TrEMBL record:
InterPro entries: At1g61320/At1g61330-like (IPR053772), F-box-like_dom_sf (IPR036047), F-box_dom (IPR001810), LRR_At1g61320_AtMIF1 (IPR055357), LRR_dom_sf (IPR032675)
Protein name: F-box domain-containing protein
Species this chain originates from: Linum trigynum
SUPFAM superfamilies listed in its UniProt record: F-box domain, RNI-like
The F-box domain, residue ranges: 15-68
Entry superkingdom: Eukaryota
Pfam families, per the entry: F-box, LRR_At1g61320_AtMIF1
Chain segments annotated as transmembrane: none
Length: 496
């Protein structure tokens, strides 16, 4: 008879009881939660109900509060929370609503700002989107000495008269300044803030209307390291004087950049959009811009920049001589949507200036699939296209990439010009390890396209691979962020 082993139960070890904490200590701990988490904690015990009045993070921009805007109960709810606040400090106040009763809401928001300023507020984030009238804020918001982060959108600043004598007496600790969707024809506000805030680190100007000539004078700011300019339509020239600038992000129409010193610049996004009015490429002095940005390590750019830098002769002769070289560039991301005549020739001509590149990410979505007003000869298979490819092979433009390891091709539809790009990297990548192909999303595909699976691609292109470690991998479109994500997101300038 089989003997069954008797199971022995381990003795129960009681868990140590938590020490009884005073109510003041518990309230202080819970005050560091945001307003949504505090409301959830108030349901746990009766003693936690008053903790909702002690919260320091008053973030009313969360999706759960945005539902209240549609029901027209957002403003009364926020007003009741702020009026009943009994805590010693308000660390941040974030608002997101459409001011309908303009005069009434002006007075309420002014009272909220004054109460938060009395309790040492450190962050303001106001987004008054699409109101019937422009929401007006007084200059008192620039006199708060404890403020560190200031984000304003869809509003206007009322300056005292005369405006030329406006000066900022507060904001000694301001680190981040962001203006979005504002009409700032008078640069007095920006100039006064840059002059007074010695600790400013980041400046964001998103979808604002500025004069034609924008000047950012930050030569005296030792901590100024990041500047973002997004879709400012009236600007034709940007002058930047910031010797300590390390990050520059620009998205919008082509403009002329004038700068003093970009020696410390390492992170850059230059996303040029097509201009409404055509100007000669030489007007923008792109070659000089690239020469002064030669120390960058990460770059994201659009096809418009490559079109402005590549030779455009009828037989591929060098009509523009490029003297720049990105010797420190490790990662580059190319946005090909809306390209006019940017093909393999323009890409290879630009990448030959990047001898140390290790990762290349090319977004193929919209590449030669738009109805631009250009000559048909510049499209794949056209006369100019064929001449440029012949010149590329004849002159050997685009030498081997000794350090290239990863190539990502997003929105790849196996079109002829995309297959030529794939072959180019397989032949020239001496240390290439992975070529990741991401199929287009179903929404972006208008019709059928040819598809090759991963096994067939590796078997077909194995003789042409310069690196024995090279491998082609095929992914779905939603796996882009999981495999070797890029440092720069494609929607870096979108506001919540």
């Amino acid at each position: 008879m089989m003997n069954l082993r008797k199971r022995t139960r381990e003795p129960h070890v009681p868990s140590p009881n938590l020490p009884h904490l005073p109510y003041d200590v518990v309230a202080m701990i819970l005050s560091f939660l945001d307003i949504k988490q505090l409301a959830q904690s108030a349901v746990v015990a009766k003693s936690f109900r008053d903790c909702l009045k002690l919260g320091q993070l008053l973030d009313f921009k969360q999706p759960i509060f945005k539902k209240l805007v549609r029901k027209r109960v957002y403003v009364p709810f926020v007003g009741r929370i702020i009026d009943q606040h009994k805590g010693p400090k308000i660390q941040s106040l974030k608002l997101w609503f459409d001011p309908i009763n303009t005069e009434e809401h002006w007075a309420m928001v002014a009272g909220w700002i004054n109460k938060a300023a009395q309790k040492g507020v450190e962050e303001f984030d106001f987004d008054f989107y699409y109101g019937p009238q422009v929401f007006l804020l007084t200059d008192e918001i620039f006199q708060i000495k404890t403020l560190q982060i200031l984000r304003l959108s869809y509003c206007d600043i009322v300056l005292p008269e005369p405006e030329t004598n406006f000066a900022v007496t507060g904001l000694p600790c301001l680190r981040v300044l962001s203006f979005g969707n504002m009409d700032i024809q008078n640069m007095t506000v920006v100039e006064a803030i840059l002059k007074a805030c010695s600790k400013l680190e980041t400046l964001e100007l998103l979808h604002c209307f500025f004069p034609r000539y924008l000047k950012i004078d930050a030569w005296h700011l030792k901590n100024f390291k990041e500047c973002k300019l997004v879709t400012c339509p009236k600007i034709v020239e940007v002058a930047v004087d910031a010797p300590n600038l390390m990050t520059l992000h620009y998205s919008g129409p082509m403009v002329v950049f004038k700068y003093t010193n970009f020696d410390k610049l390492t992170d850059c996004i230059i996303d040029f959009k097509p201009n409404r009015v055509y100007y000669s490429i030489g007007v923008y002095k792109l070659d000089q811009l690239m020469y002064d940005m030669s120390n960058i390590e990460v770059l994201t750019t659009s096809s418009r920049l490559l079109e402005g830098l590549c030779p455009r002769g009828s037989h591929g002769e060098n009509t523009i001589v490029n003297f720049f070289c990105f010797s420190k560039l490790k990662e580059i991301q190319l946005l090909m949507e809306g390209s006019r005549y940017c093909g393999l020739f323009a890409i290879a001509s630009f990448l030959q200036k990047c001898p140390s590149v290790e990762k290349i990410h090319i977004h193929c979505r919209g590449w030669f699939r738009t109805d631009n007003v250009i000559s048909r000869s510049s499209r794949p298979g056209g006369f100019t296209w064929v001449l440029q490819q012949q010149f590329l092979v004849k002159r050997g433009i685009g030498p081997c990439y000794p350090n290239l390891k990863v190539v990502k091709l997003t929105g790849f539809r196996f079109a002829p010009h995309e297959m030529q790009l794939l072959i180019h990297f397989l032949v020239t990548g001496l240390s290439l390890e992975t070529v990741a192909i991401f199929l287009p999303s179903p929404r972006s595909v208008n019709g059928p396209f040819k598809f090759m699976d991963e096994t067939r691609l590796n078997q077909y292109f194995r003789p042409a691979m310069a690196s024995p470690k090279a491998r082609i991998r095929v992914f779905e479109h939603f796996q882009d962020k999981l495999f070797c994500p890029s440092k720069h997101p494609t929607k870096w300038h979108s506001r919540p």
